[in-house]
Amino acid sequence: MGVRLAFLPCCSLEPHRRNWTLFVIQDANGLRFSADDLARMLVGTGARSGPLYRQLSESLTELIERGELPQGAALPPERALAQALTVSRTTVVAAYQALREQGLLERRQGSGTRVSADRARETVSGLAGDHAASQFLNGPLATIDFATAALPSLDLVADVAAGLTRDDYLRLTGTHHGYHLRGLPALRERIARWYSDAGMPTAPEDILITSGAQQALELVARGCLQPGDGVVVEQPTYRGALEAFGRTGNRLRTVRIDDEGLDVIALEKLLATESPRLVYVQTAAHNPTGVVLSDDRRQRLTRLLDQHEVVLVDDTSLAGTSFDGRPSAPALTTHERLVTIGSMSKLFWGGLRLGWIRAVPQVVSRLAQVRGITDLGSSLVAQEVALRLMDHRDAAEAERRTALPTGLRTLTELLDRHLPDWTWREPQAGASLWVRLPQGDATHFAQIALRYGVALLPGAVFSADGSTDDHTRLPYSLPTATMSQGVTRLAQAWTDYLNRATVDVTLTSAVT
């Protein structure tokens, strides 16, 4: 059926405390969760069978026991939560009642239902709410896990790791105490040479090794931002970035993306009227849309560094997954206010937990000091494996370049067959398809999908303001049989969802 459109029109070392929580608001009596907020948090919790009210009560119990619903937190009214979860109000009433009988919830006059202060665990308010790591905490969320888009490991990771000998370990352990805050010198040198060979002169002093790209983001947020600083992000954007900037209490502004990537002209207009501290972009391969920034926009974005006092963070974690074989070291330039984030985990295997920051030496030194507050360095064994894997990047990219487009074709053919009204733009890289629902919203639909054994992430979690909830992200790096079964179940769930929506409209019309 062809391609279908889906898009709608530096650093301070002072430590910071988070004073703003994503998706949660603070009122005079404590935290207050909306129905949609709570619906997103409930994905992947509680029982998978039994009466719906019991599944809901066990899910809420789990969130309370984990401290994600803290003491005094206000829960949404029964009717609103029932609508968000696409269940009857009776189901929510029964679940709330069961938890009140257990002493976990209490009803306060004038303030609704709240988590009991007597039984709930104490928690730091900054930890309350939905998190990017939630789907990794308790194992698979459902029979078919479409909530994660992690790439499977390449066989060469095991081959390279198995090649380490006892002499290699003795050399690694016998010459140093084992703490390399900036990273294993040989790995920093190898990554610097990789950038230099691609035409971007880089020295080892420009590289800081991190425990994955997410830690790199956290370091940049803590080291370069203060509470209240303005941050510009793409719309939509990587979920982990929203959380990193949320934890430092920043004011988020958005700039849309289209099939050429970030709308740089819109960014220029925003920078001309406001003075954000930092701009976060993904030029190499965008998560969740798979868009690659065009060459023209890349040049315009680079020029903005000379025109505005802003820190530009270019997250290239998915570099090496583009379908057209473009160079995988796509740093924009070298500039005192440019920070580039890279990763081994996306291309090779998430279990490596190896990433890096490329910046001028002064910034690297400061971020290393920030890192030293909580972490004295990444595993040297993992870094030794990563060092050897750097010699296999071309082979790894070639393998991804074959497998990812094949998986994409499989997924889109399944969607054409079973969900022909769903729309998307063809990605150019990455491992996920950003799909637009023809009606309704993904937060509510995800609850129905979970009952059919498929876990989905609502598009709202990829947005600073929740406005992309008419989208969801579907991975295409899964086995064909898994994708086929998952899309078939999604089609059944979608029919159920539409039927429920029709009933709701009919009932509303009858009442009015």
The number of helical segments is 17
For this structure, the CATH topology of the largest domain is Aspartate Aminotransferase, domain 2
Largest sheet: 8 strands, mixed
> What is the radius of gyration computed over CA atoms, rounded to a whole number of angstroms?
24 Å
CATH class of the largest domain: Alpha Beta
CA-based shape: globular
Tell me the strand percentage band. Answer: 5-15%
- Separation, N- and C-terminal Cα atoms: 41 Å
**The named CATH superfamily of the largest domain:** Type I PLP-dependent aspartate aminotransferase-like (Major domain)
Family: In the C-terminal section; belongs to the class-I pyridoxal-phosphate-dependent aminotransferase family.
GO molecular function, one term: DNA binding
Keywords: Aminotransferase, DNA-binding, Pyridoxal phosphate, Transcription, Transcription regulation, Transferase
Protein name: PLP-dependent aminotransferase family protein
Quick take:
The chain has about 500 residues and is of the alpha/beta class.
Keyword list:
eight-stranded mixed sheet, Aspartate Aminotransferase, domain 1, 3 domains, alpha/beta, Arc Repressor Mutant, subunit A, 512 residues, 41% helix, aminotransferase
Textual characterization of the structure:
The longest helix is centred in the last third of the chain and has 32 residues, at 480-511. The strands form five sheets. This protein has an eight-stranded mixed beta sheet with strand order 6-13-12-11-10-7-8-9, sandwiched between helices. The chain has a three-stranded antiparallel beta sheet with strand order 14-15-17, with no helix packed on it. It contains 17 helices and 17 strands. The chain starts with 24 loop residues before the first strand and ends with a helix. The protein has helices spanning 35-42, 52-65, 78-85, 89-101, 134-137, 155-162, 166-174, 185-197, 213-224, 239-247, 264-273, 295-307, 361-371, 380-389, 393-418, 442-451, 480-511; strands at residues 25-27, 30-32, 105-108, 112-115, 144-145, 207-210, 230-235, 251-258, 261-262, 278-281, 311-315, 338-343, 355-358, 423-424, 432-436, 454-455, 471-475. The protein folds into three domains: 25-130, Arc Repressor Mutant, subunit A (Orthogonal Bundle); 144-153 and 400-511, Aspartate Aminotransferase, domain 1 (Alpha-Beta Complex); 181-394, Type I PLP-dependent aspartate aminotransferase-like (Major domain) (Aspartate Aminotransferase, domain 2, 3-Layer(aba) Sandwich), CATH 3.40.640. It has 512 residues and is an alpha/beta fold.
